[in-house]
Amino acid sequence: NTPQLKLARDDLGIARAQAFSAGLLPDPQFSFSPQIPQNGAPGENITAFDVGLNYNISSLVMRASGVAIAKAETRKTDLALLWQEWQVVGQARLLFARERGRSALLQTLQASRALAALRYKREKKALDSGDLTLTAVALDADALQGIDKQINETERLIEQNSHALNALLGLAPATRLHLIGDANLPELNRQAIAAGLSGLAQRRPDLLALKAGYAAQDDRLRQAILAQFPAIGFGLLRARDNTGIIYNGFSISLSIPIFNRNRGNIAIAKATRQRMHDEFQARLDTAYSDVAQLLSDQALLGKQLKTLNHDLAGLSRLALRADAAFKAGDMSLATYYSLKHALSSKQVEKNAIEETML
């Protein structure tokens, strides 16, 4: 239902129609030319005429390459559509992962805000009683405002993400999708990735589309080379002069390739084919480079996540003990808040790393 895919499918319909058109045989040409005498001598007042039926034989020679070009272009358009569909799938996954990551971030921030609001409320009460300085309360008020700002920004990003997903899927802006499941981090198999890269050019649709485009351009070059040979036309002729004598015959037309010889079109076709070859190689090299960069980034982020999980495990154990101590009245709110704030900060950091890796 994606609007861009609808347009791409329309392009495929056009390409298929062009392939159908390329396979049709050219029509013959009929000509009729009457010559009506105005002041002819006696016996020469009969209307003369020329009737001809002509056919461009060269068009038959070009037909095979024209059909091959149209088929290759249709395959190219079909593969380009498939590649766009892959992009939509990838973009939908990306938006899903962002929604899950930001929703988790929002929950962490809201929990942190609840504790910060409790501390600010108690300290404001202490300030009113004269038991606390304004400086300490001002710092906590600023911290609470900072959390509120983060919450507002996260809610805005979630809303933006929702609208982007609706637009991608061709849905009304007000549609509310109920997303199911979690965006879990998969375990990367480097051997499988390396094996997949070795056959990338035989599998990835955009690279296959470029191959099909190269094949079409190769046929265009072949067609341009054929066009440098004399163009042949053949026709049957029947004529009558103004004395009534009827003539039957035929006509042959032949272009004489002396000056042009279609050299310009051949040069253009060669240069275009070379560009398509270079574009394919550049796209393939970029794919290898992108995968290498992504694997390097993932390895670095994985190390950071491992360290972060270790720190989080320790903080979580402390937080459980702190919860019990705080409820029992054996820990001050300030100490309890500091510990919980440290845990929340680590959770926010983990959320950001996981979202980046996804």
Explained architecture:
This protein has 358 residues and is α+β, with helices and mostly antiparallel strands. The protein has seven helices and four strands; from the N terminus they run H-E-E-H-H-H-H-E-E-H-H. The protein has helices at 3-22, 57-128, 134-168, 190-198, 205-226, 263-327, 333-357, and strands at residues 29-35, 48-56, 232-240, 246-254. It has a four-stranded antiparallel β-sheet with strand order 1-2-3-4. Strand 3 and strand 4 (246-254) form a beta hairpin. Helix 1 packs antiparallel against helix 2 and helix 2 packs antiparallel against helix 5 (205-226). The chain is elongated. The mean pLDDT is 90.
Kindly summarize this structure in a few lines:
The chain has 358 residues and is an alpha+beta fold.
What is the rounded distance between the termini?
Answer: 25 Å
Number of strands: 4
> Roughly how many Å is the radius of gyration?
38 Å
Query: Proportion of β residues?
Result: 5-15%
Helical/strand content category:
alpha+beta
Largest sheet: 4 strands, antiparallel
